Amino acid sequence: MKKLNIGLVGANGRMGREIADIISAHGGCDVSYSLSRDTKVNHEQAAKVDVWIDFSSPEALPEVLKIASRHKTPVVCGTTGFTKKEKTHLAKASKNIPVLWASNMSMGVAVLNEALKMFSSISNFDFQIEEFHHIRKKDKPSGTAITLQESLEKAVGKKCPEPLAIRGGGIFGVHKVHAMSEEEVITFEHSALNRTVFAKGAVTAALWLAKQKKPGLYQIRDVLFGK
Ligand SMILES: NC(=O)c1ccc[n+]([C@@H]2O[C@H](COP(=O)([O-])OP(=O)(O)OC[C@H]3O[C@@H](n4cnc5c(N)ncnc54)[C@H](OP(=O)(O)O)[C@@H]3O)[C@@H](O)[C@H]2O)c1
Predict the structure, then answer these.
(1) How many whole angstroms from 57 Cα to the centroid of ligand 1?
(2) Is there a single domain that holds both residue 205 and residue 95?
(3) How far apart are CA 24 and CA 26, in angstroms?
(4) Segment 178-192, tens digit of pLDDT
(5) What Cα–Cα distance (Å) separates residue 224 from each residue in 109, 149, 151, 211?
(6) Is 137 annotated as catalytic?
(7) Can you give the residue range of the structural domain that contains 111?
(8) Is 214 assigned a catalytic role?
(9) Model confidence pLDDT, tens digit, residues 55-73
(10) Does the Cβ of 14 fall within 6 Å of ligand 1?
């Protein structure tokens, strides 16, 4: 069977290196083309890419989407730290190609996001999200905390206090969602134990997105639960 050609953006970064390791261990796909900050795009090579995985920085996205749109190639993007305006590039490109963006590629966080819907039945509680990440993380609060906050506010039908962001040590990512009343507290918590969880999720998402025929804006939950 033909191996899937993956184009990797941000290949020299922490996540890029982890993703390359997962791909080389997989057997069903290869990194056929890598883009780093100083690469001049080779369109002959870009045309052979079946799906892109981008874990780089917000400024890379317009160029990545331009290349992918030109060759009608799906894009999985895990980059975080976008402004609202920058995020509109994803929606615009998704009219022509399949685009999957997730602030957190772990399947566990996808499940946590779904679980937050249950808080609609206790929407009178007070809510607070907390996140912990390694000291080198550039964006604050994390993209995951922002996504969880959006899901939470949608579920409970009200604004909740901003997520608390704590930076220290080498923490890969811990997210807690507290629901508090006068009588009880319930906390949903997800801990990423390593960076591999995001890399595995991104590769799973890429293999899935490559099979999607329709352009559109997909989410990591769609990989688990269907669109
Ligand atoms: N969705 C998820 O599950 C998830 C999980 C972890 C991290 N992330 C996000 O993924 C992104 C990368 O994280 P990381 O920890 O791997 O960061 P990193 O170690 O700083 O790596 C980013 C890589 O992207 C490259 N890059 C930056 N701008 C570029 C551009 N314009 N064109 C091409 N390459 C460019 C960087 O090159 P230089 O070294 O030359 O700058 C670097 O090699 C961040 O936004 C992070 O928050 C998402």
Answers:
(1) 5
(2) yes
(3) 6
(4) 999 999 999 999 999
(5) 11, 21, 17, 14
(6) yes
(7) 107-191
(8) no
(9) 999 999 999 999 999 999 9
(10) yes
